[in-house]
Glutathione transferase GstA (Bradyrhizobium symbiodeficiens), 204 residues
Amino acid sequence: MKLYYSPGACSLSPHIALLEAGLPYELVKVDIRAKKLENGEDYLKLNPKGQVPALGLDSGEIVTEGPVIVQMIADQAAAKALAPAHGSSERYKLLEWLNFLTSEVHKSFGPMFAPALNDEAKAFFRDRVMGKLRYIDSQLAGRDYLMGKQFTVADGYLFTMLTWGDRMKFDLSSMPNLAAYKDRVAARPQVQEALKKEGLAQAK
């Protein structure tokens, strides 16, 4: 498999999942602004959406959308329990988390990276994200991970966005459950390996 990624982008989530799953893969770096691969090829010919992540399967098929990709990875390494079994109530809980993260948290982070957006607008989205993070903090009380004791692909996704919060100087001091969770996920060897392979500083 080939993971098309941009360092520190949301492609970090499936990168973590691949390492946690122990699956073989190749990293292919994408210049998102230029829509080019490292070898100069047009990324849009491969993925017309022009975004990362994209997962190239051995069959030649390209799969996009992070929440889908991470589930596909988890299902290929079922013994790692990165996702509950299909059809189980726990699987639907995982889907609930993945959908919340992608629609409520991820999409609210996006505008803060837009150079054209003014500071007032960015402050609106910052407050929106902080509100979502406070909700997550409340749900993490008494839990090691989003689903309880077991690390799942949803945790890699949330952690990825928490690294964005680091870059934006988010203060998590009023959210002790989330702050401890972030440190717990960051300490996982596969997470540190993903950060290292993407040339990112280790999570604090």
